[in-house]
Each structure stands twice: as C-alpha cells, then as structure tokens.
Amino acid sequence: MLFSHKILHWYAQNKRTLPWRTTRNPYNIWLSEVILQQTKVAQGTPYYLKFTDTFPTIQDLASAPQEKVLKLWQGLGYYSRARNLHEAAKFIVSNLDGKFPESYKELIKLKGIGDYTASAIASICFNAQEAVVDGNVYRVLSRYFGVDIPINSTEGVKYFKKLAVELLDKENTRDYNQGIMEFGAIQCTPKNPDCISCPLKNSCVALEKNMVSGLPIKIKKTKIKKRYFNYIIPIIKDSFTVLNQRTGKGIWQGLWQFPLIELAKEASLNEVEKEATALLNINASLHVYKDVAIVHKLSHQHLYTKFWILETTQEIDNMVKIEELEKYPVPVLIADFIKTYKF
C-alpha cells in the first residue's frame, strides 16, 4: 500500500471531530489555520468558536474595528496573526467583492498567508493539488524517511516541500493533507509517539534505527533576550487609571498597557520613582505590587516584569475608568494582573 493510502486509511478511522471540519467554506478554514499556526487545537478551538460566533462571515470581520478583533484574540499571543487576518479580510471584501481566492497563487498574495496556509486553504477547500508542510508534516516525513536535514534550514525547507509534493495523493488531496497533519498531531507526536500501533512502523526508518526521539532536527538560532519592564499602575481618586496603546513594530502592537518604563536591568524603588515622575509629570510615590519580578516568556525574549502602584488624586493623560478596563485588548501579562489585583 502506498504511503498516501496508509495515511488516508488511518485518517478515515482516527480523525477528530473538529468544528472547522464540518465545512469547506474558505473563510472558516482560513480562520482555523491562522489560529492554529502557533496554537494547539485544545486552546485554539474556543477562540475559533468565539470568532465564528462574533464574525460569522468575512464581511463581519472586515467591518469590525481592530480593537474588537484584538480583544477576541487576547490570550492567543502572536498578535500579528490577528492584525493580518483583519487586514486580509478587509482586502478581500473591498477588492475581491468578498470572494475568497481559490488558487495557491492568489491566496499567497494575501497579508499573513504563507506557503503552508495557502496550500492548506487551496487543498482543503478546493481539493487543489498543493502539498502542506507544517510542524506535524516535518516530523512525520523526517522520521519515516530518516531525514536528518534541519527542518529550519534553507536546504531542509526545499527538501521537505519537494518530498511532500511527491507523496501527495492527487485524487484526494483534501483528506490526505488533513490526514498527514492529524497523523503527526495524535499518532507521531513530538514526545512518546505511539510507534507500537503505528500503521507505518514496518517501514519507518527512524523506528528501525532508533532515531525517533532525535528527529526532526532543528537548528537553534534564536538567542533569548532579557528585558526589564516596570509598569506604573496609577490609581486616581480610586476610580481611574491610565492606559496607553502600543505602537511601532515590536511586540503587542495595537494592544493597551499601563504606563511602561523599560530599563536595562532590574531597578530599585528610587530609580523607578524617578523615571515615573518624569514620565507622568507627577510626584510619583510608589509601592511595588510584588517584590519578585514576574517572568513572562515569549518566543525570543523573557520579560522580567514588576507592577508599581501609584495612588494619587492628580489627573494624568489617557485616564480610563477602572470599571471599563475589561473592554480594552491587553497583553495576557496585563490581563492576569488585572484579574489578581484588587483595585
């Protein structure tokens, strides 16, 4: 039996019941793929359901304010996904009469859509003969064929894409692509894969050569950067605080946060008070919420964060009502603080 036929047979017996598998509507498939790019199915599913309930059509998403989109996305991270999703929706509605492109060539032109997402939408929605290569596919192919080329090298990206194309089931590309990704997600898992019951075990090179735990190979390129964040939490007349919107191309673009002082290292109370006085144009007498910094880990940086409380009767720019804090899209780090701090 061909590799692709084994995958299709396994998928027919083992595929999970997921909400986006009840439709071939490209809007729904696109939304699910964007959510799942950096998110596991269990975490992503509630977000998918919230989005499709709030924005049932691409027209609904396109007409929504960005803040509403970011608020729904809050907690998923990698917020550029949400901004790109929104921009692409507006483009499709404004420039393509709301009709989703059907070909890989046209799909990949959309903001935020790369090779994988374009291939997934084209094949799942339109059964186009496009091979998907995501983390699950890399893992399955590298183990089955015993390939030790790093998956995040230029050579590896080209090699695995070519291999995926060669293995493609051209009659049922839709289910084959979903099948190999599903196979990697629940059978050929990153840790402790179920090799005993695997339908590919008799011809899996990694299993034969005891290489399963070592594949796929990925080059470690990113050095983790440490940053030291000091958030000032003004409590003004017991009813107001201050929020600023993040701008620029860094993390959390478009989200809201308390006034931020970023320093080169962990700072003393006197240092933060001095910086806060200059930042807010107020005599800042602070006390720290927790002595030990909260370490918030992102993919390429660790944020050593402290929250400093400033109680005052003096008005400050960008005041908001404390009771309305929940309306603003904020990073999960700040959302967690708002939940735990008793204003």
Describe what is shown at a glance:
The chain is α+β, with helices and mostly antiparallel strands and 343 residues long. It has helices at residues 3-14, 26-35, 41-54, 58-63, 66-73, 80-95, 104-107, 115-126, 135-145, 154-167, 173-186, 205-208, 269-280, 332-340; strands spanning 225-236, 240-242, 244-245, 256-257, 260-263, 286-288, 294-297, 301-312, 319-321. A hairpin with a 3-residue loop joins strand 7 (294-297) and strand 8.
Please tell me about this protein's structure.
The chain is an alpha+beta fold and 343 residues long. The protein has two domains: 3-131 and 150-183, Endonuclease III, domain 1; 225-340, Nucleoside Triphosphate Pyrophosphohydrolase. It contains 14 helices and nine strands. The strands form three sheets. Strands 1, 5, 6, 7 and 8 form a five-stranded mixed β-sheet that branches. Strands 2-9 form a two-stranded antiparallel ribbon.
- How many E strands? 9
Residue stretches low in confidence (pLDDT < 50, at least 5 long) are none
Q: Please state the overall shape, judged from the principal axes of the Cα atoms.
A: globular
Distance between the termini: 65 Å
Q: What is the total number of structural domains?
A: 2
Q: Write the element-wise H/E pattern from the N-terminal end onward.
A: HHHHHHHHHHHHEEEEEHEEEEH
Report the CATH superfamily of the largest domain: Hypothetical protein, domain 2
> Quaternary state, please?
single chain
Strand content: 5-15%
Query: Largest sheet at a glance?
Result: 5 strands, mixed
Report the top-level CATH class of the largest domain.
Mainly Alpha
Tell me the Rg in angstroms: 24 Å
Give the fraction of residues assigned to helices: 40-55%
CATH architectural name of the largest domain: Orthogonal Bundle
Structural class by SSE content: alpha+beta
CATH topology of the largest domain: Endonuclease III, domain 1
Q: What integer is the average pLDDT?
A: 96
Helical element count?
14
